[in-house]
Amino acid sequence: MKARTKTSPFWRRDRREWATFLAFVAPNALLFGAFTFWPILYSVWLSFTDWDLLRPTNRFVGLANYIELFYDSGFWRVLFNTAVYTISVVVLGQILAFLLAILLNVPLRGQRLFRTIAFLPHVTMTAAAALVWVLLLHPQYGPLSALYAYAGIAGPNLLVSSTLALFAVILVGVWKETAFASLLFLAGLQNLPRDCYEAASIEGAGPIARLRHLTLPLMTPTIFFLAVTGFIQATKAFDAVAIMTEGGPVYPSSSMYVYHLYVLAFREYRAGFASAFAVVFFLISVGVIIAQFRYAARRVHYGE
Amino acid sequence: MNKRQFVGFCLALLCVASCGDSGDTAGGVTSITYWRTLAGASGEAQDELVRRHNESTPTIQVTSEYQGTYSDLATKLVAATAARSGPDVTQLGTFEIRQFARSGALVDLRSYLDGEDGIDRTDWPATMAQAGEIDGGIYWLPFNVSVPVLYFNEQAFADARIDGAPKTWDAFFAAVRALTVREPDGTVRRHGLALWNITWPLFSMIWSEGGELTTRDYATITLNDPVVVRLLSELQELVREGAVVLPDRASGGHRGAFLNQRAAMILDSQDAFGEIFGADHGFTAGLAVYPSGSAGTVYAPGGGGLAMLATCPESKRAAAWSFIRFMLAPEQIAYYAKQTGYAAYSGRAQAAAGATLAEPRYAVIHSALPNIRADFSVNMSPAIRNAFNEAYQKILVDGASVQETLDAADAKAESGIQRELGGR
Question: Is A250's CB within 8 Å of B382's CB?
């Protein structure tokens, strides 16, 4: 046996083990290859062409799409909008979710009902939620307009203002993110070690000090997880934009990167240019996630 | 069943599957897939026409498949074309004609039109017969033709002592002001006009005042034409005064504002018939053609047409054409007009529609037909369409400088059209 292992190449050894390994890996690898990696690579190739989604052939245009993108005001606008939306949803959503989780952690009668209600926005389809928000924000018939009227002021008409429409979309994003994040924060809060809090109390730490020096550091894994998943989710914002504003008024005042991609590819038939958008966005996203992980390596406490 | 038997069974199954009919032609019957848009009465009437076709032509059986809105349908057609699959015949809006035709996604219908089993187009409005002409070929034929119409609140007109719909654009702007009603504190209770958030109604306004946006070959683009500047300045002023509102689509848009009596008039098409006349909204709505301008009466039509997809196999194209011919026959166009309010655009279709056209609403629509200019150049170019639409909203929503905004839009459209025409 020993002599055999010395003379045989490694793939001949443990052939059965290799076969088992491949049998398990191949289906996933094939699926990922076909539906994730191949489209990414194909998008990169398309970004150097002028393909219109319809022609069977396309023309190689080199870096023209990337150069045009750099000078395109639409690119900078949707990048800015997406950054504002993502930061608002992730940061504001987490702050609100954390406060909500603290409230939901208080032992009260009907606690389960409150928790269910708090989580409902997350399980509601974004398209449906967006429609409800359109009604809530309706300038004549929405409850918010009634509130404004009661207060004797003319409230802002968010959806018809090119400066405020983005905030209407952000509102829906924050509302949904708060629901999801609050559940994870609640789970995190319930798993915090009681003995640390007892020790801190004995040492004379007040509620603020306990929050700052115990709760927040111990919650950093949850915060980090939510920051990463929230970032990925927020950058993909599409449905709320499509339902509420279609990127307008005065397109692309409230458009997001992914919605703009869709418009370029499927409304303007500029698949090559849209692919350049996609590639740039992919690189930006990877960069941000790497930065998040590097930051996490220094700041996230896993309790070792 | 042992391993050998199992493999044999699978091979036999494969043989049966591959030797069998693909579903396109079986027993002398050719199957045609037709993708359509429009829901409600406009969709049901198409399905009824398909049913009548199948009944009258047993050798060609058409399946009608609803694919959502015009833009949903276009998106699905793009995906289907890329996958070399999809329908044989499709309904198609005006936006996609040029792009699809130039990309080779549509079949040139000229040889069918002028062939033995062609269509006599001598009684079609001249511009309508050429509407689907791209680079010498004809890729799109009008089916559901809509004409621009003005809807107005009759009570509001009576209150403002306005006798009937305005006949000129100047009278129209004056009516917009007169119809605006304010609360004692100055806030607007009812606007004179709710504008659509698309620029289509403006085409008729601009053309009838002697303005142009582009030539059909895109050699000259004039989004900053003095007439366009003047008309948009007037509308901007009316927005500032509160006489005109531009509601967002999600909150009900211009139609919602009209139906809720927040606006006394809207510039729309007969596509809104069902919504406006189909239910009681607490007021009587009137209908009129758009006003005329200093250069005469010109109406920009809308709606959709029929096209044959290049993915339709050669062997089925004669059947696909036969179906298109059936759908565009005067009897079918007349039936569709009666059921939906779309225009019976040809002389023989109007004759086939008979007494229906005497009904006042139909009479209004059909009185517009002699003055239609079926020029979809702006719609067919994403660069021009988007540049103009963006400028329109900047001017009316943001109150931007009209001249500067239109100059910038013109420059943007110029560079965009160069790219679209391949001169990158």
Answer: no
C-alpha dist (Å) from residue B337 to B129, B147, B186, B365: 18, 12, 44, 10
Nearest to B98 by CA among B382, B412, B411: B382
pLDDT tens string A149-202 = 777 777 777 888 888 999 999 999 999 999 999 999 999 998 888 888 888 888
Q: In which residue are the tokens 């150097």 written?
A: A48
CB of A4 closer than 8 Å to CB of A239: no
Percentage with pLDDT > 90 across chain A? 57
pLDDT score at B251: 80
Interchain CB contacts (distance < 8 Å): A and B: 75
One-letter amino acid of B335: Y
Question: What percent of chain B stands above pLDDT 90?
Answer: 75
Q: d(Cα B114, Cα B126) in Å, to the nearest integer?
A: 16
Between the alpha carbon of residue B158 and those of residues B90, B164, B178, B280, B298, the distances in Å are: 45, 9, 11, 19, 28
Report pLDDT digits (tens) over B304-315.
999 999 999 999
Q: Which token pair is A198?
A: 């007892």
- The C-alpha of B360 sits at a distance from chain A's nearest C-alpha, in angstroms, of 34
Q: Is B17 left (phi over 0), alpha (psi -120 to 50) or beta?
A: alpha
Cβ of B250 within 8 Å of Cβ of A266? The answer is no
Domain ranges of chain A: 2-37, 64-299
pLDDT at A10: 66
Please give the sequence-ordered ranges of beta strands (E in DSSP) within B123-214, or none if there are none: 133-134, 137-138, 141-146, 148-153, 181-182, 188-190, 193-194
Can you tell me the mean pLDDT for B373-399? 93
Question: B299: which DSSP letter?
Answer: B
User: Residue A153 in contact with residue A82, Cβ under 8 Å?
Assistant: no
Residue with tokens 């309508």: B128
Please check the confidence at residue B19 and state whether its pLDDT lies above 50.
no
- CB-CB neighbors (< 8 A) of A139 in chain B: 251
More confident residue, B6 or B212: B212
Please report the domains of chain B, with CATH numbers, ordered by start residue: 26-145+302-366 (3.40.190.10), 148-300+381-420 (3.40.190.10)
Beta strands in A113-204 (DSSP E): none
Q: What is the pLDDT of residues B320-352, one digit of tens each?
A: 999 999 999 999 999 999 998 899 999 999 999
The CATH number assigned to the domain with range A64-299 reads: 1.10.3720.10
Question: Where do runs of H (alpha helix) occur along B291-329?
Answer: 314-327
